[in-house]
Amino acid sequence: MTVVAEGLHFPDGSVITPDGGTLVVGETLGNRYTAFDLGDDGSLANRRVWASLGPEVTGRTTEAVLGQLVVAPDGCALDAEGHIWAADAIGSRVARIAEGGAIVDEVAAPDGLGVFACMLGGDDGRTLLVCCAPDFYEHTRAPVREAVLLATEVDVPHAGRP
Predict the structure, then answer these.
(1) Is residue 3 assigned to a domain?
(2) Is 96 a domain residue?
(3) pLDDT one digit per residue (tens) for the chain, 162 residues
(4) Phi–psi pair at 13, nearest 5 degrees
């Protein structure tokens, strides 16, 4: 295993653009998405902020950072217009984010549920699948079966990988 990037704030959820040239990584505890040029050999270069979703966070622990988060990007999917559908781990929603950080659409989770992953699928790539649960703490989730998978249709289909 080779370390190709350091200093990411809880990287979780990533996409590769359709041309295979850019990797975009969500930083759940960083209020942002970070992009890298992706080399044919898997190397990363030209690190940059793809979307700033809130102020730069300070602190080194989850507890210190949680209150500073505006959007906590979790699992995600890229659409054919270059927007990322992002599960917002603190906002009980999935948000469609444009490069730069504007939220251009969102779908709220049912009351009492958080959103922790999403993907575009279905025959035409327009089915937004949303994974929800009451919270993200393993010790409260492990003994119960309260998570649900929801689906809704969106206008713009999936693109890129995964």
Answers:
(1) no
(2) yes
(3) 888 899 999 999 999 999 999 999 999 999 999 999 999 999 999 999 999 999 999 988 888 888 999 999 999 999 999 999 999 999 999 999 999 999 999 999 999 999 999 999 999 999 999 999 887 767 777 777 778 899 999 999 999 998
(4) 95, 120
Q: How many domains does the chain have?
A: 1
Name all contacts of 15-21 with Cβ < 8 Å and 24+ positions apart: 15/76, 15/77, 15/78, 15/84, 15/160, 15/161, 15/162, 16/78, 16/160, 16/161, 16/162, 17/78, 17/82, 17/159, 17/160, 18/159, 18/160, 20/161
Residue 141: domain span: 11-153
